[in-house]
Amino acid sequence: MNVFEAVKQSVTTRQAAERYGIKVNRNGMCVCPFHNDKNPSMKVDRRFYCFGCGATGDVIDFVSRLHGIGSKEAALMLARDFSIPYEDGRNARKQPIRPRLRRESEEQKFKRMERHCFRVLSDYYHLLRRWKEEHAPRQPDEAWNPRFVEALQNMSRVEYLMDVLLSGELPERAALITGHGKEVRNLERRMAELTARDTAGTKEHGRKHRAAPER
To answer: Are 148 and 137 in contact (CB under 8 A)?
Structure first.
């Protein structure tokens, strides 16, 4: 097992954050070290995700950004600081080429699906958070905007799904990706349509504004 695999299997981002001086509360939240964060907005567990600046990744990405070093240096630092054994490649027995390539291809496919699913959920979560602020009723008797209602209904659920991808075990993450694959694709398509519609509306408004006669 090389240093990257050994570190990722042995150390969580939360353990690394606490080891390097970052205070993490009971809910796994901490002040993000990657932007000017006043209140805890970063979730750290197996992976990390900042709800403020959008920074995300695994434990090696976290340490690499935290210390301003490359991925290899970060992995070696973690292996040293957490006393993690690993093969350096010089004494490791060579594996058959075909099975190795096939296994890595399957892993890469899963990682790609996992990243895609998380990106779509993250984009949707930020959209819901914006809708909740922009479309909140200003008066007690004002009718609720459908986008505000959607934000109230879905924010907690989307946050839960993101949390599973960040900190869940492999079977949980695989089940989420399999079970919600169609939903994620539909969600991605809907957000693209909303963006196109809003962009078209903005352009139309601009044309009408320029065409309005001066008084």
So the answer is: yes
Residue 27: which H helix or E strand, with range?
none
Which residues does 211 contact at the CB level (< 8 Å), separation at least 6?
A: none
DSSP character at residue 141: T
pTM of the model as a whole:
0.53
Nearest-angstrom CA–CA distance, 173 and 166: 9
Residues in the chain: 215
Do 51 and 43 form a contact (C-beta atoms < 8 A)? Answer: yes
Element holding 56 (H helix, E strand): strand 56-57
pLDDT tens for residues 65-110? Answer: 999 999 999 999 999 999 999 887 654 454 444 444 444 467 777 8
CA distance from start to end of the chain: 76
Closest CA relative to residue 188, chosen from 116, 82, 108: 116
Q: For the residues of 173-186, what is the DSSP string, one character each?
A: HHHHHHHTHHHHHH
